Amino acid sequence: MTKKLHTSQALVDVSQQLIESGLNKGTSGNVSVRCDNGFLVTPSGLNVADMTADSMVYMQIDGQHTADKKPSSEWQFHRDILQSRPEVNAVIHTHSMFATTVACLHKDIPPFHYMIAVAGGDSIRCAPYALFGTQALSGHALTAIKDRKACLLANHGMIAIGADLDEAFAIAVEVENLCEQYWRLLQITPEPPLLSADEMREVFQQFQGYGNWNS
């Protein structure tokens, strides 16, 4: 099996995982992975149940792609993240329930729980709203995810990134879990107690060399 075909199948597999885990439904969300001198991205408007390895779209950094295939409308932020972050090889975008709910409040996720650190900082930023599939959205996403492994997109959803698809998927799962916890806290109080900057620094030190969350 060629590298490109193997990578295409990995995209199909993780897209199915996103559906099975409830992080995406129907045709929502998209996934990309670095491949050769460009990247592979899921196609536009195709139900995951109908996806095959051949459905994946290979794109060059300049945006060119196979003429008979239509890439996800969000390909710009996939391309821009992969281009600006050489340590990143996979990008996952979801419309998961709780991440999207909090994103619709235009709220950053503050350090209410130490596991916020899995996203690479002491908060999970929410990018300002921009129309889907635009360069403006990509610009907002790049700013929000700077020095982070995840961000929210206002009135839209979530982006999670990683060194590979497994890491990006694990981060997406954890961010959704954190968003659900934060949403539940907001039902009790609009200002839950937060961990301090010193306490979060201790978390990062503890995470060094610890499982999948080694930063």
Average pLDDT metric: 94
Poorly predicted tracts of residues: none
Assigned CATH class:
Alpha Beta
Write down the overall geometry. Answer: globular
Helical fraction: 25-40%
Beta-strand percent range: 5-15%
Written account of the structure:
Helices cover 37% and strands 14% of the residues. The chain has 6 helices and 7 strands, in the order H-E-E-E-H-E-H-E-H-E-E-H-H. It is of the alpha+beta class. Helix 3 crosses helix 5. It has one domain: Class II aldolase/adducin N-terminal domain (L-fuculose-1-phosphate Aldolase). Strand 6 and strand 7 form a beta hairpin. The chain is globular, with a radius of gyration of 17 Å.
Q: Helix and strand layout, with pairings?
A:
Elements (H helix, E strand, L loop, with lengths): L2 H18 L9 E6 L2 E4 L15 E3 L15 H10 L5 E5 L2 H7 L22 E2 L7 H10 L5 E4 L3 E6 L2 H24 L8 H11 L8
Parallel strand pairs: 5-6
Antiparallel strand pairs: 1-2, 1-4, 2-3, 4-7, 6-7
Q: How do you describe this structure in short?
A:
By secondary structure, the chain is of the alpha+beta class. The protein has a single domain, classed as 3-Layer(aba) Sandwich (L-fuculose-1-phosphate Aldolase).
Name the descriptors.
L-fuculose-1-phosphate Aldolase, 6 helices, 215 residues, alpha+beta, 7 strands, 7-stranded mixed β-sheet, 37% helix
